Amino acid sequence: MERAQHVSINLPALQKLANTISSAMMDGECTTEDWIGSDVGPPTGDPVLTIDWIFLTSTLNFSFWTNDKEKGSYCRKYKDKLYHGYEAMCVAINQAIVDGIDILNAEYYSRITMYDLENIFRPLENSSPLPMLNERLNVLHETGSILLKEYGGHFLRCIEQSGGSAIDLVELVVKKFPAYRDEAVYDGQRVSFYKRAQILVSDIWGCFNGHGIAHFTDMDRLTMFADYRVPQVLAHEGVLVYSSKLKHRLEKKEEIPFGDSDECEIRAASILAVHLIANEANEKIPLEKDTGDFGERLNEPLVDVYLWRKRRERSDIYEKTPFHRTRSIFY
Question: Which long-range contacts (CB under 8 A, 24 or more apart) does 163-169 make?
């Protein structure tokens, strides 16, 4: 961040947000409970299927924003409730399971056709389609084929090779699955964000409450998941400060290419900000609120999920703050 030209961090605003988050954790709000959401979450009862669901949704967890004001974002309905973006995608996957489609089977999605993909992820009438379907098709084919060849079609076998280390699992995923290799070059230096690889590991940890196969002893070494929604919250709260030039790009809804220096600065600043928030908040949280033996009382994935949910709950407020629009399979 020392070389950043268009993004900076406002420390007083950061400390204010850290105070809010530490209070939320002490009130029991910032936990792994109902991590993804029971209505849109994975099937339960069989850990292998649960993990395969998490791997599939993490593989497809990218680029849900739209420029269509009339239709709005990709939308699906479940139990008379509307879900958008990532949650709508989860609803579509769960509906496919109910309909008897073998969508969690790597053998199936490694060869899935565009016709079937469009049918599974069909939007509600008058809502936008799921973006980047061609890219999602390619990612499913590539990722499913690797999962079959290297791990017998089940991500559980990949977890078993990590030795209980979240960092080692992230590195293994990035090494084996190119679609998770979220890297760019900033000012001549390679930078790694690994948003989806880290959210994959964190979703497994969260859904299993850090127990059993998801007992990772180094969750505190993961960063937040550098996407476009949490930076939007951080900017709205005054934590991220943008130059007038960058503000103009965001306000006119310019599509910023993946790897652009402004995009890298926003994502890097978000990672640093959440790291500082977690550190600041942990200083205020009593020891009895320790979340276990997998790291700090409050880790960065927990802060990320808290902010992401906050944005969902108050979208009417946060949508007034422009976000960076980058089309990418990495987030």
Answer: 164/215, 164/216, 164/217, 165/216, 165/217, 165/218, 166/201, 166/202, 166/205, 166/216, 166/217, 166/218, 166/219, 166/221, 166/222, 167/218, 167/221, 167/222, 169/201, 169/216
The one-character DSSP state at 227 is: S
pLDDT tens per residue across span 110-153: 999 999 999 999 999 889 999 999 999 999 999 999 999 999 99
Non-local CB neighbours of 255 within 8 Å, separated by 6+ positions = 325, 326, 327
Cα–Cα distance, 320 to 331 (Å, whole number): 21
Check residue 204 and give its pLDDT: 97
Provide φ and ψ at 140, rounded to 5°.
-65, -45
The 8-class DSSP code of residue 97 comes to H
How many other CB atoms are found less than 10 A from the CB of residue 37? 12
Structure tokens that stand for 89 in this block: 């995608």
Kindly indicate the confidence band of residue 290, based on its pLDDT and cuts at 50, 70 and 90: low
CA distance between the termini of the chain? 21
Alpha helices in the chain (DSSP H): 11-26, 47-59, 85-98, 106-109, 114-120, 133-151, 156-160, 166-176, 195-207, 229-236, 244-251, 261-282, 300-313, 315-318
Tell me the residue type at 136: R
Instruction: Specify the 3-state DSSP secondary structure of 96.
Output: helix
* H or E element that contains 84: strand 81-84
- Segment 6-31 shows an average pLDDT of 92
Q: Give me the catalytic one of 52, 182, 203, 227.
A: 227
- Residue 52 annotated in active site: no
**H or E element, residue 190:** strand 189-192
Token pair in block for residue 54: 């998490």
Residue 62 has pLDDT above 90, yes or no: yes
